[in-house]
């Protein structure tokens, strides 16, 4: 599997990508997780990314393309990969096509998770995230087994600073303006598969698996 999972913030990309990638035995490559780790570690990349992330804006394309190139050149990506959160702009998608062309590993599919904006706002306002393994929970829909501890790795859960209501609205606007045009881009490349992202997590996973097989 060499696929992209895209969709608005809060569509369930991280939740689904973790299950799909594990099932397929390929790495889940989540650019948001890579940036948050760099921010935690206080690296130059993390410091650059922080100011954009806090405002809900996109980190510049040239920075993101450099990150994804370095990651996709690692050995484990030769077996396949699932990209989560990249590409987010048409120039990023064009750079990805060029890179995958050079590496001889073109995409098989682009899955677009569709969720109405009202549901997104509810999801993000209740999201709790594991800063260690990246797993997402939701205070009502998918609570952690022990209060404020990740059920997978035991780390203390956090509320992402960019899940504040004002920042969520900015992120949705950025999605509409910069990322939604990728739908046409991938439609024209014959790769787009649209999947309803509403309903129980397991049902969405089954729909995504069916779309990957189609
Ligand atoms: P993304 O990676 O697209 O930003 P997440 O996977 O972090 O989204 O999910 C956003 C929030 O929505 C999390 O709190 C998660 O627990 C919750 N969530 C994920 N899938 C569903 C679903 N099918 N129904 C309800 N809530 C969901
Ligand atoms: P995410 O965890 O995917 O919601 O991403 C969190 C934040 O990281 C985004 O709001 C952006 O600021 C930044 N980010 C993640 N991926 C990208 C990308 N492909 N291009 C630009 N910015 C990104």
Structural features, described:
By secondary structure, the chain is α/β, with parallel strands linked by helices. It has a single domain, classed as P-loop containing nucleotide triphosphate hydrolases (Rossmann fold). The chain has a five-stranded parallel beta sheet with strand order 2-3-1-4-7, sandwiched between helices. It has a two-stranded antiparallel sheet with strand order 5-6. The chain is globular, with a radius of gyration of 16 Å.
Draw up the topology in text.
Layout lengths: L1 E5 L6 H12 L3 E3 H11 L2 H12 L5 H12 L8 E4 L5 H14 L5 E6 L2 H9 L1 E3 L6 E3 L26 H15 L2 H7 L3 E5 L4 H13 L1
Parallel strand pairs: 1-3, 1-4, 2-3, 4-7
Antiparallel strand pairs: 5-6
Helix pairs in contact: 1-9, 2-3, 4-5, 6-7
Bound molecules: adenosine-5'-diphosphate and adenosine monophosphate (AMP).
Query: In total, how many beta strands?
Result: 7
The molecules bound to the chains, other than polymers, are: adenosine-5'-diphosphate, adenosine monophosphate
Number of domains: 1
Secondary-structure-based class equals alpha/beta
For the sheet with most strands, the description reads: 5 strands, parallel
Widest sheet: strand ordering: 2-3-1-4-7
What's the overall geometry? Answer: globular
N-to-C CA distance: 13 Å
The helicity comes to 40-55%
Rounded mean pLDDT is 95
From the alpha-carbon coordinates, what is the Rg to the nearest angstrom? 16 Å
CATH class: Alpha Beta
Number of helical segments? 9
């Amino acid at each position: 599997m060499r696929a992209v999972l895209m969709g608005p913030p809060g569509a369930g990309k991280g939740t689904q990508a973790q299950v799909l990638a594990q099932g397929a035995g390929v790495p889940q490559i989540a650019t948001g997780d890579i940036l948050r780790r760099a921010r935690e570690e206080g690296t130059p990349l993390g410091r650059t990314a922080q100011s954009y992330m806090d405002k809900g804006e996109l980190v510049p394309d040239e920075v993101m393309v450099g990150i994804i190139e370095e990651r996709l050149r690692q050995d484990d990506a030769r077996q396949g990969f699932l990209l989560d959160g990249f590409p987010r702009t048409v120039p990023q998608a064009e750079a990805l096509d060029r890179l995958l062309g050079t590496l001889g590993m073109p995409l098989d599919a682009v899955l677009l998770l569709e969720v109405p904006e009202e549901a997104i706002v509810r999801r993000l306002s209740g999201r709790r995230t594991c800063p260690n393994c990246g797993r997402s929970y939701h205070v009502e829909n998918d609570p952690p087994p022990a209060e404020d501890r990740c059920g997978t790795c035991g780390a203390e859960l956090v509320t992402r600073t960019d899940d504040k209501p004002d920042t969520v609205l900015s992120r949705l606007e950025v999605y509409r303006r910069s990322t939604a045009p990728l739908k046409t881009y991938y439609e024209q490349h014959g790769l787009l598969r649209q999947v309803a992202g509403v309903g129980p997590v397991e049902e969405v996973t089954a729909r995504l698996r069916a779309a990957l097989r189609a």
